[in-house]
Design brief:
single chain; 10 helices; Aminoglycoside 3'-phosphotransferase, Chain: A, domain 2; Phosphorylase Kinase, domain 1; 2 domains; 5-stranded antiparallel β-sheet; globular; alpha+beta
Length: 363
């Protein structure tokens, strides 16, 4: 099966970053050496990850991971990268819950050492459901697992969301509320409108994305529900597993103070995105895994909170994902990796499923 080339994720050289990192680390641990530098195969297109080891007798940990804000000169996916915010969220989650969040060790807000702010955390060992090629495709560890093993992973992963939403004190997450007026959900959606406006500034606008925003208004929940700390990028591809149990919950850059369903909708739809893509290429995928009805019913059993307005929230997740994909496509064009089509909606890989959600026919 032919696939499109993976978009460029970085303009930086790991070895050069390692040399600069060693110089910076020497300020905290004089004489420390940075070794075993590497980049995970799943390195994202927002902030970047660098894996390394610390050689020093007084190092608090040997195996580390560094999260580095995107190079501001490299056509970034998001307009801002607040590494201090991520560091704070991870520290608070570790303090208030039993979720397996890697210990964060150092925060550097000065861009001078590595060219952008960053933080260092303990490296988690284990395996991650792949994005490329997606775990719904044949030939990876999760697809090859038994139904019972995938059920264990699904249950444990949904427990992560339930425990986060139930145990983290909501008042401690209010610093994540975007500026503006209105409810947490209103502000969350308005922040996405602002992000979309930034993505299409000076470029072709997406009629489908704008139709989706209009449809959101029509589907707006009568009862939005209480706001909690939402993980943000709530999907199994952001969990490191030991066997089929979560060993580390990663990628908190999209954390938000919003209704629980913002996370649940993202979990449901991001799996559907991979599943639909797999079926379109002639494979069966994993049709019985992470089904919407199973997620909703089990979450209600775990928390006592029955998910509400999920047609709204799954559409919202697909819409948010579409904006990100549009930006990535424009980024690919900037680097000469693709040519822009006449119809910008064609840049959205899941435009058919998003259109079906807008029309109310997807589910």
């Amino acid at each position: 099966m032919a696939t499109a080339p993976r978009p460029r994720t970085s303009t930086r050289e790991p070895e050069e970053l390692g040399r600069r990192l060693e110089a910076w680390l020497g300020r905290h641990l004089p004489g420390a050496r940075v070794t075993d530098i590497g980049v995970p195969g799943s390195n994202g297109m927002s902030s970047e990850t660098l894996l390394f080891a610390v050689d020093h007798p007084d190092a608090p940990v040997r195996s580390c991971a560094l999260r580095l804000a995107a190079d501001p000169a490299a056509y970034t996916v998001f307009p801002t990268y607040d590494m201090a915010r991520q560091y704070r969220v991870m520290s608070l989650v570790a303090r208030h819950t039993d979720l397996p969040v890697p210990t964060v060790r150092w925060l550097e807000e000065d861009p001078e050492p590595l060219g952008a702010p960053f933080f260092v955390m303990d490296r988690a060992e284990g395996r991650v459901p792949p994005d490329v090629m997606p775990y719904t495709y044949e030939g990876n560890w999760l697809h090859s697992a038994t139904d019972a093993e995938r059920a264990r992973l699904q249950e444990a992963s949904l427990s992560v969301l339930a425990r986060l939403h139930d145990r983290f004190p909501a008042e401690a997450a209010q610093f994540l509320l975007p500026e503006g007026t209105g409810s947490p959900l209103r502000r969350h959606v308005e922040a996405q409108r602002a992000y979309y406006a930034w993505v299409v500034r000076g470029l072709a606008r997406s009629p489908l994305i704008e139709r989706a925003f209009d449809r959101l208004d029509a589907l707006w929940p009568a009862d939005e529900g209480p706001a909690v700390l939402c993980w943000g990028d709530a999907r199994i591809g952001n969990i490191v597993y030991d066997g089929f149990e979560p060993a580390a919950v990663l990628d908190w850059e999209m954390a938000a103070y919003a209704p629980r369903e913002v996370d649940l909708g993202w979990t449901v739809y991001l799996h559907r995105f991979f599943q639909d893509l797999t079926v379109s290429f002639g494979q069966t995928g994993l049709p019985d895994f992470l089904r919407r009805e199973d997620i909703e019913s089990r979450y209600a059993e775990l928390t006592g909170h029955t998910p509400r307005a999920m047609e709204f929230h799954t559409l919202y997740a697909a819409l948010r994902h579409a904006i990100v994909m549009l930006r990535i496509a424009y980024r690919q064009a900037y680097f000469g990796e693709v040519e822009l089509p006449a119809d910008p909606d064609g840049l959205i890989l899941h435009h058919a499923s998003l259109a079906a959600m807008v029309d109310g026919t997807y589910w």
